[in-house]
Structure prediction request, 625 residues.
Amino acid sequence: MKQLLVLLALAMPALGLAEDLSASQLAGQKVFAHRCGMCHREGGTGTFVLARRLGAAQSLLEQRTDLQPETIRYVVRWGLTNMPRLSRVEVPDPDMNQLVAYLTRPRPAAAP
Amino acid sequence: MKLILPPGVSRARFEQALKAFASVVGPEWVLATDEDRETYLDVYSPGRDTSHAASAAVAPASVEQVQALLKIANEFRIPLWPISRGKNFGYGGAAPRMAGTVMLDMGRMNRIIEVNDKLGYCILEPGVGFFDLWEHLKSNKIALQLGIPGNGWGSVVGNALERGFSPAGDHSNNICGLEIVLPNGEVVRTGMGAMGDGKAWPLFKHGFGPSWDQMVVQGNLAIVTKLCLWMKPADEAAISIEIKLPKPSDLQWCVEALAPLRLQGVIDGLVRLTSYQASATVPTLRNQWYQGSDSIPDDVIAQMMQRMNVGWWNGPLRLAGFSDVCEANLKRVLERLAKFTKQEFPVTRMRGDAQPGPTTYPLQMVNWYGGRGGHIGYSPVMPADPKLVQEQFERTRRRYQQFGLDYSGTFYIDGRAATNVNLILYSKDDEEQKQRVRQLFEALIKDAREQGYGEYRTHLSYMDNVAASYDFNRNALLKLNERVKDAIDPNGIIAPGRNGIWPKAYRAHRGVL
Ligand SMILES: Cc1cc2nc3c(=O)[nH]c(=O)nc-3n(C[C@H](O)[C@H](O)[C@H](O)COP(=O)(O)OP(=O)(O)OC[C@H]3O[C@@H](n4cnc5c(N)ncnc54)[C@H](O)[C@@H]3O)c2cc1C
Prediction:
């Protein structure tokens, strides 16, 4: 647990990098905060389970660069391991599109 | 999930009804694809998905839309099951009791109508989540406390309507006035709200004449569109006493020591005693401890307790209020504990408003077996009597061992009654294990009935069994509930089968899964 917190702390500066987000990506960031953030930001249960399964580097969805639109759409609607499913009332189609735009946004090349 | 039609409704009539619903809420708020139906399944269920599969969902944005939807539902005989946020995991999630029911998803009605810190209440629409209300309190610096369930993802209204609870107590006790829509579309406000512009609606529970709030809680007579909830002002100070007891048999003396102090109001909220297991199920996987398919044995339990640094029974005791009163109460609690044990209990002092916010952290425990997890809760209510509590624990644990499942229990002691919440965790993909889970559950309901204890709440699949266990005078109360149901909801369109209450139109579905 402690180890994970240290790793998360190391990953923090990456989050601080100011990114220029398009209007739709920005809207997607809001959807993420409101609908996913309670489990998928630092210290959240989704982050923890992902770290356990895939390693800490893959655990924060907002930092992942390998997420595919179909995967995001599928997991939101069909869940994964113990993650419950989100309906189109909770994440309507337009919100889903924004969410996908945000989580798959092109990222500036990572510093070496 | 393939479409299962509401009983007695043809495909064509069903499509017509959906069209009519869409004319009220807009087509984008009628969800009826196979994928939509998947999103309303109870993913943690130990049974077949088809037992509680919704046929569609419809999401209104206003009271007027709810009224219009009910009118259509009556005309087409479409049963509607209301959910506020539908996060009722362990008890059925966002699913209905009867397959083919349409979900009435109230999630779009999500306004925080008022929060009053002087008089200590809030008025909410159903879609407001614990996270939303918490954020509102923090960003507006409102010093009111919120009772938050272990899984904080759900709705404040939905949770109270299920009689959810937290260490702060039974949340439905704080309901003070509802706005409801009856099956015929009529809007009623209960209590003091029954007076147009009634000024004391969220302040005095009963108004004039019979009190209706609790008729709606765990019932199926109406759709709730607004709920007034009492909130407690933040305390000046709080003290946490860490209880950590080494032996399973320590439960008995601990209840004997603490239940009277709870009854006298020395302890704030419920006394919570949780078995060692919860400390492991959240952060670790079962196979890190044990590979056997039987219940985790005692030597492994000893290792878990040591590595997780927990006792067999654990729980923070909370004292809260004015700091001098807290100190005086602390002295009383420690003196009382010293009569039973030489053990020392670490004490932490904190600000009264240092309440932790909602989290979804406990949901992790559903991953105990790895893969797709399942979970149901078994929660009988019994006397807060030390000997009976100890016996209840031992009997329940023996049943878990008999069916090869890992015991995980909590006793919430409320002075008079104890609520014994037991978690049953399993793998969704292990049919043989799920079979044992169902056998365990049925045995537990029977055991409780033999003792004269009943569940305070249960999973959709067991509502009929639990309702049947309330059997005084040949289930006279259930019969009364069904007479009232038939009178108010003659077509049986609201939540047929909820808590075992079946309207005459669907009574043949009792016990059908
Ligand atoms: C790990 C874990 C820990 C948990 N811990 C707790 C806990 O500590 N305490 C606790 O209480 N629960 C707990 N739960 C159970 C559950 O997750 C919560 O109670 C949750 O708040 C219920 O979901 P909800 O609030 O979204 O209610 P909903 O699912 O929206 O509503 C529950 C039911 O109430 C009725 N209802 C809802 N809205 C309306 C309406 N507008 N009109 C009429 N009827 C309505 C319906 O029958 C509905 O099915 C836990 C679950 C898990 C998995």
Remarks:
- The radius of gyration of chain A is 14 Å.
